[in-house]
Write a structure and sequence with these properties.
Length: 419
């Protein structure tokens, strides 16, 4: 048996064996590697993938066509100073994610709540990044509202979700973010658009959760873009305030309800808010709330028609107040309207701050979800007609019918060929 002898200088080479090549750093430990060092390996020396940039922008930061290559202050921004580049964070992409069985229902269709959660995460990242793009007090962007979201195409287990987000408007205290979701079949390479959503965020100070900070402005390439954004901002602000006062009632259980009635399918979920549900501020992520809302709405729809159901669209989701860590939230859903092939479900989120006795139970969020019933082949099925019993249920049915007819007319108008 041959032994290696250790000398004062370290290991000694055994006679008859080839010397091992050494890699040295010119400056010793911690110095930059030499051209012949570790970084000379083929898999590490490949040049980075080029990123589309514009003149004057920091290296590696993609820019949206909405924004000119200028800083929010109007002058040219020097490279290497990202704190002056609020516009640089205009466009962002979330890492692709493959859909797994725990993301979908028993039929293999991905839950709408899972997609809504991914949408909100992308919006929160880009809006928080933009709001911290200038020197000043640090903040985190909190979700205030989600505009109507249509599920254009179902996503299935095994497909890959690609989520991209873009800032399209900023007011003094809010950010509008447009998020697109694409699904990819990695076996065929086919891609399709599944969702387009518009979200509104407000920046909250890390030092004081009740303090809303100012948003760094963006520079628009056309004046019309800013004017259109301002109209959208005023419209959503007005509707959000109206919805807050309209949704004051509470879903109450009814013993021994009859089939196809509102009471028969209504459902509630009680959830204790823990640290994993919360942001740095200690209040719930908007995506977590939306996912729970979709779960409850799905239970209501499944109880009503007893078939495979999928989310077709979500009307505006309004977040009326923050939900803090330690609160017990009750998510309640009830059927409000049915057409021949769709169901509208109202979902209400109430928060009960059990740790803080000084605050009473309050309405935290509200929305309308629309579901459709599908056969095993993925074709839409007729929906059992809802039977409203009380005057309030009949009133909500007529309101839901009005929303349904309004959206139907809007879709037909968009489908008509333009002259």
């Amino acid at each position: 048996m041959r032994l290696k002898a250790r000398s004062a200088g370290g290991l000694r080479r055994i006679p008859g064996t080839a010397p091992r090549p050494r890699r040295r750093f010119a400056g010793g430990l911690g110095a930059a590697p030499s051209p012949g060092g570790v970084d000379a390996h083929p898999w590490r020396s490949a040049p980075p993938r080029p990123v589309p940039e514009r003149a004057g922008a920091p290296a590696g930061v993609p820019l949206s066509p909405l924004i000119r290559g200028r800083s929010p202050g109007g002058g040219a921004s020097p490279a290497g100073s990202p704190e002056r580049w609020g516009a640089d964070y205009q466009l962002a992409r979330r890492a692709p994610r493959i859909m797994r069985p725990d993301d979908a229902n028993v039929a293999g269709n991905v839950h709408g709540g899972t997609i809504l959660k991914m949408i909100e995460e992308a919006g929160a990242i880009i809006s928080t990044r933009h709001c911290n793009s200038q020197n000043g007090e640090r903040c985190v962007a909190a979700l205030a509202r989600v505009e109507r979201t249509d599920f254009l195409s179902p996503m299935c287990i095994g497909e890959v979700a690609h989520v991209s987000a873009e800032i399209t408007y900023t007011s003094k205290h809010s950010v509008e973010v447009q998020v697109n979701v694409m699904s990819e079949n990695i076996l065929t390479g086919t891609k399709k658009l599944t969702n387009k959503a518009t979200l509104w965020y407000v920046p909250l100070s890390l030092k004081n959760v009740d303090k809303v900070l100012e948003v760094p402005p963006v520079v628009y390439s056309r004046q019309e873009q800013e004017e259109e954004g301002r109209k959208r901002y005023e419209a959503q602000k007005l509707e959000r305030m109206e919805t807050k006062w309209r949704n004051g009632d509470i879903v109450q259980p009814v013993p021994n309800p009859e089939p196809n009635t509102v009471s028969y399918s209504q459902s509630s979920l009680i959830h204790l808010v823990g640290p994993s549900d919360c942001t740095l501020h200690g209040f719930v992520h908007g995506g977590v709330t939306m996912k729970l809302m979709d779960e409850v709405a799905g239970i209501v729809a499944a109880r009503h028609c007893k078939t495979n159901i999928v989310t077709a669209s979500v009307d505006a989701i309004n977040f009326h107040d923050k939900i803090r860590k330690g609160c017990v939230i009750t998510i309640s859903g009830r059927m409000t309207f049915t057409s021949n092939k769709s169901m509208e479900i109202e979902v209400l989120v109430d928060a009960d701050p059990v740790v803080d006795n000084s605050q009473k139970r309050y309405r935290a969020a509200s929305a309308f979800f629309t579901y459709v019933s599908l056969s095993q082949e993925g074709k839409s099925l007729p929906v059992p007609q809802l039977v409203p019993e009380t005057e309030d249920e009949k009133k909500r049915f007529e309101e839901g019918k009005g929303r349904y007819l309004q959206m139907k007319a809007k879709r037909q108008g968009q489908a008509e060929p333009q002259p």
